[in-house]
Each structure stands twice: as structure tokens, then as C-alpha cells.
Specification:
binds pyridoxal-5'-phosphate; alpha/beta; 7-stranded mixed sheet; 15 helices
Length: about 450
């Protein structure tokens, strides 16, 4: 172990120096991947020196998501106190299904879940669990809604047309999950949005009424806190009024920006959250923990048991069910995703989480100001979003982003809204400073001069 820990430290130091010196790894063409790196698995062991140099080669060409040039996705950066917790979780290697096997780690997970329930104003009956990502949190939400609406679905399957509603710009997992739960993708209604990408509550109401008149069964509405492209926040309050009127489960998908609940300045973006039936948030997005760290909570833990409990004598041999988390989770064996968030939260406090969230909005404002003050840019996104969407001159966004990547200049992606394609820069890496944001634009400008678009 000692030797491997030494090797680990050496490799981490190498990674950190690479991040500094080559913040964007030169991409390897997929056609050349197996020729460039020694990825082959052989009958004979690898000698230590080769093993180490192979690992360094792999580290060198792996994309650097913690570098100051990574703006590509809805995560990025590296927060040390969370890394510490995750490394410990790997060493401890518990499985979260029973108290017997996970011990105090169960208390760590439950502390986080209860604290989040408190913050969003859920009652004492509320509880939650950790899921393997935001898509799976959404999956758990829609399953609970299905089983609440139609308790026989668990055993008998589905015979009626049960209908889901979500905005036209919501995450694709909603459609996938409709197929997973046996309801079918065609039963997903894409509700129109306003020009800021927020779902129109009036259109939702009209569509629900139409479906009821046709004899269908509306049972689930998904609202989004931070849509994947524009970072828009649906109006939870007005959507919840529609859901209450028709007695329909309301889930708030906060995978991207649900962490605004920690910020006094920005929590108004999810006003009405206490009226939702379930809420999910990815700590690996705004809170910067390592992937993955996704939380789903619901108003009444009965729903978790109803959809996810299964008796298994070979597993549940001790303690009260409240501490045997396997009864409320999607998986059987389950990785400890709670510890990294707990070590972060414990060390910086709730106020520290608030600063993390606020800093991302500050960085986005700096970026929007820059864009607004430079006539060569066009801005497509709005205040109170950490997705900054823009175009530079008349350069097509996909061409610009791909060329920046291939030339190892910047990692940034593109998206579109209402047929308009644009660069989407995400200011989710809390470690960035104003100069990194300005450097981002300077890199684009210098690159555009030297490149033929
Ligand atoms: C990222 C995201 C998801 C999916 O989360 P994963 O952890 O990637 O599965 C779901 N919904 C929204 C709005 C997201 O931004």
C-alpha cells in the first residue's frame, strides 16, 4: 500500500502540473487512440516502470476538467475538502445498503438529506436518498409519482395512458425515464416556454385539461431549476398551483442549479419549492464535489418505501429500517456518495456553500458584462443564469468550439434555443477568478484572428 500511495502522490503531482502547463490536453483522434496509448490488456503483468509511464501518458491526454480552460459542461473545478471525503470513501469502501456494513456513514448520508429537507421547507415526514446522477434522481421521482397515482403498477404493470408534462427545453432524461417506467415516450407532453426558456404554466394547465377530457391520466409534472442550455428557472409557484388544482405530482429537477437553495441572494429562483412533491439536486454540479453526487428528496418517505423497498432476508439482518438505506434506494450495493459532500459542508459550513453558489453568479455577470460591452459579441442568455450563451462575430458556434478543442485552446460547448445556435460558457468552476474569464474571451479573439473560419 505504501508504495502505491507514493505512486499515487507522484501521479497527482504530475496531473496538477499538466493542468497548469497544458490546461487543454491535446485531443487524440479516435482512429489513433489505441495506437497512441498502451491500453491493451495482456496475459503477462506490466513491469512497474512501464505501468507508471503508461499511466502518465493516459493522464497527459485525458481532458482536464479542473483546469482554468474548462467551460464545457455543467461541472468543473476541484474543491479539496470534497476530494478528501471521496478519497476516504474509496479507502473505507462501504456499501450504503445497511447500517451493519456502513455504520456512521449512514448517519452522514441521513444528516445531509434531513438538512436539505429542512432548508427547502419540507415537513418532518420528508426523506430522501442518493442516486447515481441527476437522470436517475429524476427516474426515482417519476417512479414514486407513478406508484402513488397507480399503486397496482408495481405488480400489474400499466394499462392506461398515464401522462407526464415537462418543458420543451427540459433534460432528455424525462423522456428516457418515461420509457423506463413503462409509460412510454409518447406520453410526454412538451410544454412551451417563454423567450427566457421558462415553462408556461397556462399552457401546462390547458394541456392537462385536454388530456383529462380525452380520458388520459395526468400524473407527473417536471419543473426545472436551471435548464441544461440556458440555465433557466421554471416558475415553481405558478406551476405548483396548476399541479395542486389537478392533484398531480410535481418534481423539481434541480440537477444543474438546485443548489441555489443555499444562497440567500438566489434562492428566490426556486420560490415555492416547499410545494413540490420531490426535488433533486446534483452536488457535483454547482457545489463542485467529484462526480457523482446526486440527491433526491420527497415530502413523505412512504413514497420511497412504496417504490423501492423489497424484503431480502439475506441482506437486512439487523437494525431498524430507518438505518437500512437499501430499502429506499434504486440500487442494492451502493457507493458512498455522501461523505464527499459532508466533508465539504462540515468544513466550510452552510455559509461556505452559499459563497460557492454566489461566486458562480458573480463570474457569469462578469462574462455577460464583457459580452455586452464588446460589439463583436451577441448575448443570448439572461441575468441570474450561470450559462452564458453568446456568439462571436459571425463564426458558427459549433465550428468555433470544435476548432478551439482540436487546437487545445479551450474546452467550451455549444447549444441552441429556438433555432439559434450559440456558444454556451458555464461559470460553474468556483476556483476561477475574473482574470480567467477575461482570458477566456481573449483566447477566442486571438484564435479567431489566426484561424480561417
Ligand atoms: C445534468 C442534468 C441532469 C442529469 O444529471 P446527471 O447527473 O448527468 O445524470 C438532469 N437534469 C438537468 C436539468 C441537468 O442539468
Amino acid at each position: 500500500m505504501t508504495n502505491d500511495l507514493k505512486l499515487f502522490t507522484e501521479l497527482v503531482e504530475f496531473l496538477i502540473s499538466e493542468e497548469k502547463n497544458n490546461p487543454v490536453a491535446t485531443p487524440i483522434d479516435t482512429q489513433l487512440l489505441y495506437k497512441t496509448l498502451d491500453l491493451e490488456l495482456n496475459d503477462e503483468p506490466s513491469i512497474d516502470a512501464n505501468f507508471k509511464s503508461t499511466l502518465k501518458d493516459i493522464i497527459k491526454s485525458t481532458p482536464k476538467t479542473a483546469s482554468t480552460s474548462f467551460f464545457n459542461q455543467l461541472f468543473g473545478g476541484r474543491i479539496n475538502r470534497a476530494i478528501l471525503g471521496d478519497l476516504l470513501a474509496v479507502m473505507l469502501n462501504n456499501s450504503m445498503y445497511t447500517y451493519k456494513v456502513a455504520g456512521p456513514q449512514v448517519g452522514i448520508e441521513k444528516t445531509i438529506l434531513h438538512k436539505i429537507c429542512d432548508i427547502i421547507g419540507y415537513p418532518k415526514t420528508a426523506d430522501g436518498t442518493f442516486a447515481p446522477g441527476g437522470s436517475m434522481s429524476n427516474y426515482m421521482a417519476v417512479l414514486m409519482a407513478r406508484d402513488k397515482y397507480n399503486p397496482s403498477a408495481r405488480n400489474e404493470g400499466i394499462t392506461n395512458k398515464m401522462i407526464l408534462y415537462t418543458s420543451e427545453v427540459s433534460h432528455y432524461s424525462i423522456a428516457k425515464n418515461a420509457s423506463f417506467i413503462g409509460v412510454g415516450r409518447h406520453q410526454v407532453r412538451a410544454i412551451k416556454t417563454n423567450d427566457k426558456g421558462q415553462m408556461l404554466a397556462e399552457d401546462l394547465d390547458i394541456q392537462i385539461i385536454k388530456d383529462i377530457e380525452q380520458g388520459h391520466q395526468p400524473f407527473f409534472v417536471n419543473a426545472t431549476a436551471g435548464t441544461t442550455v440556458l440555465g433557466a428557472f421554471d416558475n415553481v409557484k405558478s406551476i405548483s398551483n396548476v399541479c395542486k388544482k389537478h392533484d398531480i405530482w410535481l418534481h423539481l429537477d434541480g440537477a444543474y442549479c438546485g443548489s441555489v437553495i443555499f444562497s440567500n441572494q438566489y434562492k428566490y429562483l426556486v420560490n415555492g419549492i416547499e410545494h413540490t412533491d420531490s426535488f433533486s439536486v446534483n452536488a457535483h454540479k454547482m457545489l463542485g464535489t467529484p462526480l457523482s453526487c446526486s440527491i433526491i428528496v420527497t415530502q413523505n418517505k412512504t413514497h420511497l418505501y412504496q417504490s423501492f423497498a423489497n424484503d431480502a432476508e439475506y441482506l437486512y439482518q439487523t437494525n431498524d429500517d430507518d438505518f437500512n438505506l437499501g430499502k429506499t434506494s434504486l440500487q442494492c450495493g451502493r457507493r458512498n456518495d455522501a461523505l464527499k459532500l459532508w466533508t465539504l459542508w462540515k468544513s466550510v459550513g452552510s455559509n461556505g456553500l452559499e459563497s460557492i453558489v454566489d461566486q458562480q453568479f458573480n463570474l457569469a455577470q462578469i462574462a455577460r458584462n464583457y459580452i455586452s460591452n464588446h460589439p463583436d459579441y451577441t448575448l443570448y442568455s439572461y441575468e441570474d443564469s450561470i450559462s452564458v450563451c453568446f456568439n462571436y462575430k459571425a463564426i458558427p458556434a459549433n465550428k468555433l468550439c470544435t476548432a478551439l478543442y482540436e487546437d487545445a485552446q479551450l474546452m467550451v460547448g455549444f447549444g441552441n434555443f429556438r433555432g439559434q445556435e450559440f456558444v454556451r460558457m458555464v461559470t460553474i468552476n468556483t476556483l476561477l477568478k475574473e482574470k480567467d474569464i477575461l482570458n477566456f474571451f481573449k483566447t477566442i479573439e486571438d484564435f479567431a484572428i489566426s484561424t480561417d473560419f
